[in-house]
């Protein structure tokens, strides 16, 4: 059987797949506080979750 032309040697594959640690770290700026008077939804996961007897 002929050699697979798409086969990579393991060391060549791992050298191309590894990313230096410095490039893996993403630097974020300080969080921005919400504007004054901002009020979030007290129950954002409910999505109008109060249903009646038959679930509508």
Walk me through the structure.
There is one protein chain. The chain has 56 residues and is an all-alpha fold. It contains 2 helices and no strands. It has helices at 10-17, 21-24. The longest helix is centred in the N-terminal third of the chain and has 8 residues, at 10-17. The mean pLDDT is 75. Residues 19-56 are annotated as: Disordered.
**SS element count, helices:** 2
Please give the largest β-sheet: none
Query: Helicity range of the residues?
Result: 10-25%
Give me the count of strands. Answer: 0
Shape: elongated
Q: Which stretches are low in confidence, meaning pLDDT under 50 for 5 or more residues running?
A: none
What is the mean predicted local confidence, pLDDT? Answer: 75
Rg for CA atoms: 27 Å
- In percent, how much strand structure appears in the residues? under 5%
What is the straight-line distance between the termini? Answer: 65 Å
Structural class by helix and strand composition: mainly alpha
Helices and strands, in order, run as: HH
What's the quick description here?
With 56 residues, the protein is mainly α. The protein is built from two helices and no strands.
Q: Which structural traits does this protein have?
A:
2 helices, elongated, mainly alpha
Topology:
Blueprint: H1 10-17, H2 21-24
Region (Disordered): 19-56
